[in-house]
Amino acid sequence: MQTVPVYLASIALEPQRWSSRTPSYRVSHWYRSILEAGFDGIELWEYHYTLASAQERASLDAGAQRPSVTGMPVFNTYHRPYISSPEDWQSVFSACTRLGAGMVKFNLGGDPEREQEYRDALSEILRIKPAAVTLLCECHPGTIVEQPDSAARFIDDERFSDIGFIVHPFLIGNPKLKKWIDALGAGIMHVHTQMRDESGNMIPLSTRPEYIRGQLETLFESGYRGGISVEFVEGTKSERDEPSYLFESAKADLATLRETLGQLGILRPGV
User: Fold this and answer.
1) pLDDT, tens digit, for every residue of 113-144?
2) Mean pLDDT over residues 87-116, rounded?
3) Whole-number mean pLDDT of the chain?
4) Which helix (H) or strand (E) holds 103?
5) How confident is the model at residue 64 (pLDDT cuts 50, 70, 90)?
6) CA 117 to CA 139: how far, in whole Å?
7) Which helix (H) or strand (E) element contains residue 253?
8) Could you give the dihedral angle defined by the CA atoms of residues 256, 146, 165 and 226, in that order, rounded to the nearest 10 degrees?
9) What are phi and psi for residue 150, nearest 5 degrees?
């Protein structure tokens, strides 16, 4: 029977994610609570590591190596291949080694006329990338891979055969999700969860259970074998945007995901 890990993206609990980007909380203080809540690990926001104190980095390094801790399999970086230097990327990969992260989320730029520049820069990053690390390109609005056809065109390059893509199944309808699947197929290696109402406010996954089930069913029937990160939750960008409240929202979304995946016959790893 198929299993799928569900991670908590540490950015989900960060009130300053879009302002100063200075960490407002220590991820290590939430380790136990996150795992006890039933998450299978953490997608670590880069600044929760690189802008943290030496003591916090040491705690995260040590925690990732403890057998009782699933760890931080995804490292979420803001380094972009066409801006950041190879030395910057070496530091990213060194962090992955210390944290035990096998996947790195990154973004491309948004200028179609610079696509060849993006390709060449990414090729250089792949040249220094450790074999144990997979790059995950987020299909993010404002980038040249925000649409299925442009993402498929970008990956149609033998140099990029091992790069994965991240999509957001609950921000798009079922026809659009099918377009992503048709365009990328097995290239979709990870998904982020967030869901919004008509005004753009984040809402709980539990408010649209049939939609959630339909999107997950389409995704997994296509042969998807990646993981899921709870990225943004109800309370994000509101007066309740603080870690304790956001964590309760994240746990509620996790419960919805587990229940729905269970209905589809997809279990938690180790169960």
Assistant:
1) 999 999 999 999 999 999 999 999 999 999 99
2) 95
3) 94
4) strand 103-106
5) low
6) 18
7) helix 243-263
8) 20
9) -75, -35
In this prediction, residue 70 carries a pLDDT of 64
Q: What's the token pair of residue 118?
A: 């993006």
Q: Model pTM greater than 0.90?
A: yes
CA 184 to chain centroid? 17
Pairing relationship of beta strands 6-9 and 42-45 according to DSSP bridges: parallel
Q: Quickly state the pLDDT bin for 1 (edges 50, 70, 90).
A: confident
**Is 270 a residue whose pLDDT tops 80?**
no
Report the alpha-carbon angle 28-29-32, nearest 5: 85
Banded model confidence at residue 24, pLDDT cuts 50, 70, 90: very high
Q: What is the 3-state secondary structure (H, E, C) of the chain?
A: CCECCEEEEHHHHCCCCCCCCCCCCCHHHHHHHHHHCCCCCEEEECHHHHCCCHHHHHHHHHHHHCCCCCCCCEEECCCCCCCCCHHHHHHHHHHHHHHCCCEEEECCCCCHHHHHHHHHHHHHHHHHCCCCCEEEEECCCCCCCCCHHHHHHHHCCHHHCCCEEEECHHHCCHHHHHHHHHHHHHHEEEEEECCECCCCCECCHHHCHHHHHHHHHHHHHCCCCCEEEECCCCCCCCCCCCHHHHHHHHHHHHHHHHHHHHHCCCECCCC
Instruction: Determine the Cα–Cα distance for residues 230 and 35; give it in Å rounded to an integer.
Output: 14
- The whole-number pLDDT of residue 62 equals 85
- Percent of the chain exceeding pLDDT 70 equals 97
241: Cβ contacts below 8 Å, ≥ 6 apart:
15, 235
Instruction: Measure CA of the first residue to CA of the last residue in the chain; give whole Å.
Output: 10
Q: Which residue has the tokens 């442009």?
A: 150
Query: At 108, which amino acid appears?
Result: L
